[in-house]
Amino acid sequence: MSRNICSKFCLVFLNVPLFLLGIGALVVGSLYLQYNRKVAIGVVVVAIIIISVGLFGICGALMESKIFLNIYIIVMILLTLALIGGLVALIVYKKRVTNTYLNITSNRVKQFSAITDEVDKSTIIAIFKQRKCCGFEEVNDYPLLFEKFEECRKTPIDGKWTLTCIEKVKNESNVIYMAILVLTALLLLCTIFASTSACCITCQDRHYRDKDSAYS
Hints:
Pfam families: Tetraspanin (PF00335). InterPro entries: Tetraspanin/Peripherin. The chain is mostly helical. Helices cover 80% and strands 0% of the residues. It has a domain at 83-196. α3 runs antiparallel to α8.
């Protein structure tokens, strides 16, 4: 049992948080079913996949099950390749990623007057209030949204709120891009490390089995 202790510990250490993440996503997906069934079902499916992968890793490590470990290694290799592709795409298409966030936010502002859902409206108002900005591209544009803020109704506009929202959204998009990039890179390192640990367990098991059979 002690011969694979380091690799086992690493594999369990990596997969317990993954398993718990899957449980959390499953709970969130189940609770969200009443609001948006399609999105909730998608979250539940992803959660089940995450839980399954985590279980394969944990059970494979603790039981030294060749079947579990081989399935886990295949999944990790596929995930590693997908993350490498994602990382390359993020670097190559940086402008497209940041512009997507900017365009989504811009469309929400432009369509604000047509939104009938009060909860949706309140959410947009709350988000822009936190940004402390007046107007989107110009200080005085889209008054239906920005005149809801006392600081934007002042003349001259409050000094803290003189920046237009488009500048703040651009900054946010860069922060979000970097966060996604770093997270993808960290996940890539984790998948490489996890698949290496699983391979070590299977290789060591094979080595000791061959050694035992040679002595017998």
